[in-house]
Specification:
- This protein has strands at 2-7, 10-13, 18-26, 32-39, 46-52, 57-59, 67-72, 77-82, 91-99, 108-109, 113-118.
- The chain has 119 residues and is mostly beta strands.
- Strands 2, 4, 5, 6, 9, 10 and 11 form a 7-stranded mixed beta sheet that branches. Strands 1-3-8-7 form a 4-stranded antiparallel beta sheet, with no helix packed on it.
- A hairpin with an 8-residue loop joins strand 9 (91-99) and strand 10.
- The protein is globular, with a radius of gyration of 14 Å.
- It starts with a strand and ends with a strand.
- 31% of the residues are buried.
Length: 119
């Protein structure tokens, strides 16, 4: 099993910044993709940004040039630096770890951290 613990959410004004962290522990697969998804009220969960062990990234178009994902493989931790936040960035942000090569849908989720951006 893999445990993911997120931190760093909170309330911020539009234009502000937040940094999320997610630390993984347990039976961590050596080759994996770690990243962030979010879910706004009444909406489906969506990808925000992910990064694999090799530094390859994928961002949602809505956050490109504002958010930066990074990871420390030695600490099994992934970060999300969020700048120029907008009210539409509000939601619960979930950390995800997906082993590379695993069957479709097999991944681990954190408990989520709330991000609220006020206008």
């Amino acid at each position: 099993q893999v445990q993911l613990v997120e931190s760093g959410g909170g309330l911020v004004q539009a234009g502000g910044s937040l940094r999320l962290s997610c630390a993984a522990s347990g039976s961590i697969f050596s080759r994996n993709v770690m990243g962030w998804y979010r879910q706004a009220p009444g909406k489906q969960r969506e990808l925000v940004a992910v990064m694999d062990n090799f530094g390859n990234t994928n961002y949602a178009d809505s956050v490109k040039d504002r958010f930066t994902i990074s990871r420390d493989n030695a600490k099994n931790t992934v970060y999300l630096q969020m700048n120029s936040l907008k009210p539409e960035d509000t939601g619960v942000y979930y950390c995800n770890l997906r082993p590379i090569g695993a069957v479709a849908g097999f991944s681990f989720w954190g408990q989520g951290t709330q991000v609220t951006v006020s206008s």
